[in-house]
């Protein structure tokens, strides 16, 4: 396995890019440690697949360097990077048995037969497909085909990294949870460096130890799933992660505080005086409560989602979502919204502009 370093990486599909908007990847500097589980998360078109193809060698970057264990591989072709890749659609040989599909990457590298058999059976046991080894791959269900495709990526022990490009896209929703759990278990057992590319926050947050969130060719935050949820560094992260996403509300900053509709709103900590720009308050629905005092609002609608209710209220013209577990108001009622101070953050030009007070509850 390998530590992966991306240094000053930029890429454009234009021959002569002139502005930042001409770049699909604007500038990427990133280190992935050996043996970690990582996710690239972002909407379609944000650059994550371009980045994956550059790491694998399927595409050369316009600028910058790629290093595996501090050794430059930027100019190496894919077959010399020792990378295994699992795609959206299972890449297997339908005419072969499951055993032969798993054995193929090893036989192709002329691994001794007894070692091939040992490794194939180890991977088959991990994937829980031992009873399918003699079956032709053509007859497998889509989820089992994807299991075999994953196994082909994991069967080699000489790979630098295993990369998954939205591998659960074609899997039925009720089977996705099972395969996500299996993939996490496989990582814990083989400790390979794994990079998982997806637009699905659930897949990213349940698989990865560290998530890289991308927007419009840039990395806007790198962190654990808890980091991304509890303390978004950018309003996009707050919007994109969570259901519903973070409330982002225009505010006025004066006298060292933040004001909405003329009312002072307590923040998590001090405002960063070095930042300027459009000012907004970010607060997740989980930390919005209803009370006798607070910001006045009118309930627009209430959704029962099983474990709790999502209350959508209008505060002036601003929509605010709150997650409430009991004593739910009816549409049309006037309520008062209370924001948990330790989770109320100020953003300037979409970037976090407050510092949490030491010892404050998150």
Features:
OB fold (Dihydrolipoamide Acetyltransferase, E2P); Rossmann fold; globular; alpha+beta; 362 residues; ABC-type ferric iron transporter activity; ATP hydrolysis activity; 24 strands; 6-stranded mixed beta sheet; 5-stranded antiparallel beta sheet; 23% helix
Could you walk me through the main structural features you see in this protein, from its secondary elements to its overall organization?
Strand 19 and strand 20 form a beta hairpin. The protein has a six-stranded mixed β-sheet, sandwiched between helices. The two termini are 36 Å apart. The longest helix is centred in the middle third of the chain and has 18 residues. The radius of gyration is 24 Å and the shape is globular. It has eight helices and 24 strands. The chain is α+β, with helices and mostly antiparallel strands and 362 residues long. The mean pLDDT is 91.
CATH topology name of the largest domain: Rossmann fold
Question: What would you say the CATH architecture of the largest domain is?
Answer: 3-Layer(aba) Sandwich
Output the CATH class name of the largest domain.
Alpha Beta
Binned, the helix content reads: 10-25%
User: Main sheet, how many strands, which sense, barrel?
Assistant: 6 strands, mixed
What topology, given as strand order, has the largest sheet?
Answer: 6-7-8-3-9-10
Number of domains: 2
What is the molecular shape?
globular
Average the pLDDT over all residues and give the rounded result.
91
Question: For the terminal residues, how far apart are their CA atoms?
Answer: 36 Å
- Tally of helical runs: 8
Residue windows where pLDDT falls under 50 for at least 5 positions = none
